Amino acid sequence: MKKIIIIAMLISLLSIPAGSFAQTGDRPCPTMGEKLADLCLLRPVCLVGACVSTGLCVAVSIPATLMGAGPEVGDALFVTPWRYTADRPLGEFCYYKDGTPIR
User: Fold this and answer.
1) What distance in Å separates the CA atoms of residue 21 and residue 36, rounded to the nearest whole number?
2) Which of 53-56's residues contact partners 24+ apart within 8 Å by CB, and which partners?
3) What is the pLDDT of residue 89?
4) SS3 (DSSP) at 95
5) Is residue 42 over pLDDT 90?
6) Considering only CA atoms, which of 31, 50, 19 is closest in space to residue 89?
7) What is the largest CA-CA distance in the chain?
8) Rounded Cα gap, residues 44 and 23, in angstroms
9) pLDDT average, residue stretch 2-17
């Protein structure tokens, strides 16, 4: 439980700069500190989270499909975590590689 709280605190601390950049509208170049924090802290946590959410997606895929929410659940539990983990530049917390903003 203590590890989960620490991980949640790290993610919330790393999301503070992302919110301030999104409000100003400009896209500054990530600093070396942001790149290192992304590489050493956030990416491994995102990788574990993406693996967990993939397992959850497999577990709920049949009930979700029967209820008519299959594509939405698949997008939320599979595509979004993996895209955030692998499809954004190092140190960039607001935009994917193709320039679309992260919701």
Assistant:
1) 18
2) 53/77, 53/78, 53/81, 54/78, 54/81, 54/82
3) 92
4) strand
5) yes
6) 31
7) 47
8) 27
9) 62
Enter the tokens of residue 60.
């709920």
Residues 6 or more apart whose CB falls under 8 angstroms from that of 60 comprise 73, 77
Give the model's confidence band at 8: pLDDT under 50 very low, under 70 low, under 90 confident, else very high.
Answer: low
22 pLDDT above the threshold of 60: no
Judge contact between 3 and 70, C-beta under 8 A: no
Please state the domain extents for the chain: 2-86
Q: Are 10 and 41 in contact (CB under 8 A)?
A: yes
Mean predicted confidence (pLDDT) in 76-98: 92
Going by C-beta distance under 8 Å and a sequence separation of 6 or more, which residues neighbour residue 21? 27, 28, 93, 94
**What global pTM score does this model have?**
0.68
